[in-house]
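Reminder to self: tokens first, then the designed residues, so the page reads top to bottom the way the pipeline ran.
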């Protein structure tokens, strides 16, 4: 007779969306920072 529940050793943890994003931070953070600096420099030159 099979049980509908998985055995105690194979309990799966709930998926954390934050854990999927954390490995991309070292790549995304400098790109967003560079784009923000370019945007602010463009605005400063346009306003001058």
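Designed residues (48 positions):
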């Amino acid at each position: 007779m099979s049980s509908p529940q998985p055995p105690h050793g194979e309990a799966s943890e709930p998926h954390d969306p934050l854990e999927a994003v954390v490995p991309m931070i070292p790549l995304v953070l400098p790109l967003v920072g560079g784009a923000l600096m370019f945007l602010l420099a463009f605005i400063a030159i346009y306003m001058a």
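The chain has a mean pLDDT of 86.
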